[in-house]
Amino acid sequence: MKPISERLTILHTNDIHSHFDMMSPLAAVIAEQRAAAGDEPLLLLDVGDHMDRAATETEGTMGQANIDILNLTGYDAVTIGNNEGLTFTAEMLSAVFSGLQCPVVCCNFVETATGEPPHWMKRHVILERDGIRIGVTGATAAFASFYALLGWDALDPEEALRKECSLLAPQVDILIVLSHLGLPTDQRLAENLEGVHAILGGHTHHLLERPQIIGGTAVCGAGKFGQHLGRLVFERQEPDLSFRLVEGECLAVSPELREERIHSAAVTHLERGREALHESVAITDRELRIDYQGESPFGNFLAQAVRRFTGAKIAIVNTGQLLGPLPEGDISLGMLHGLCPSPINPCIVKLKGRDIRIALEQSLTEEFRNKAIFGYGFRGKQLGSLAVDGLNILYDSLVLPYDNDIAVFVEGQPLKDDQEYDVGTLDMFTFRIGYETLANGKDAVYLLPHFLRDLLRMELQRPGSLEESFISRWNNDTT
């Protein structure tokens, strides 16, 4: 009979975001750690946002590429992040996670219809390795209003975790929380949850080279994109024979490393993804250029697409969503994905004319057009100018920034500062990102699961849409 182990190594990753270029190097470091552990038990855990539909491999295979990498790398349990939960429909998640060879663990994510986790998810698991019982539970960021549109209830994570930890603690030697909640929440959880040995964190992409010890709990985070691998070592200690953390670190992953099976799988899935996205959606007779500093046909085209889809009187979008011009000729799904990769959804809000006017005035300044934006689904490089549909704007390009007294018209009538307008725009703005007055809207209606590239495809198939995009909305009056 094999003796009970006195030592356990836990490796953890988070927020890989479909960086397939780093999955092979990461797997090489994991293999090194397994070899170093020898006969001692080791667990490999992921804390969510492994998938990101901005990647061709993920988009083209609907996440199957990620599942194959997780299986080949040998993960023991994972949780989901918002990139899995909010960018895939329930049917897609069921199809892709049914092929995962380890449990998906999350305690605050349930079906609205049943109040229970989906069939492919567990609230917790107890893993046994060489006589050591390890309890694992997890939680994901509760974007409740968004999840409700997809048929999910996102429960309060702290309340759900407290219940699971109370249940698990008496049954296990080591209790681990997979937290796709962000560092500030993890720090609070460490103070409030009992019996937890480690909180492995994600969502805020925080890198903790050494764990923060709060109330006896190790708070951890391994950064983003597979650039680091988290490592914890627990040993059984006298006199009570309980397990305590004796080592904790994040190991840097060199992109030069390679694990052949994972490298080969990543190459294969890139090819399959490109093949799946090769489908033609339209043939254009002209190029639509993009300008991040002002008005351009492709920016107008995106605004048109949002206005048509939302049915709003006005549409306002930022040109930074588009990563290049739309060329003349055959337009494929893959091309639209490459030009508009962000998993951002359209929405409808009620906005006062004053808030619309301020955002439009800000769009005339380099400060806003060149602003770098990170997170919230945005995959571009800069915020860009505002593109509109349903508005006509008269401005003077010769005046100093913020001195522009613009004139704005809706259906030929002056925009009224105190009047509310239905505006089709982007969910990113409702988080007060970029043009912040656009977040002052009320009664937001989020139109999941449609992405902007889906709307571009629909607009490309509407007769006359290309011609309309060349009609100016911003008119420069220097007289």
Could you explain the architecture of this structure?
The mean pLDDT is 95. Helix content is 29%, strand content 27%. The chain has a six-stranded mixed beta sheet with strand order 7-8-10-11-13-12, with helices on one face. Strands 3-2-1-14-15 form a five-stranded mixed beta sheet, covered by helices on one side. A five-stranded mixed beta sheet has the order 20-17-24-19-25. With 479 residues, the protein is α/β, with parallel strands linked by helices. The radius of gyration is 25 Å and the shape is elongated. The longest helix is centred in the N-terminal third of the chain and has 18 residues, at 20-37.
What's the quick description here?
The chain is of the alpha/beta class. It has 15 helices and 26 strands.
Biggest sheet architecture: 6 strands, mixed
Q: How many whole angstroms does the radius of gyration measure?
A: 25 Å
Total strands: the figure is: 26
The chain-level mean pLDDT equals 95
Distance between the termini: 92 Å
Neighbour order of strands in the largest sheet? 7-8-10-11-13-12
**Which descriptor suits the 3D outline?**
elongated
Number of helices: 15
**Percent range of helical residues:** 25-40%
Task: Please name the defining characteristics of this protein.
479 residues, 27% strand, five-stranded mixed beta sheet, elongated, six-stranded mixed beta sheet, alpha/beta
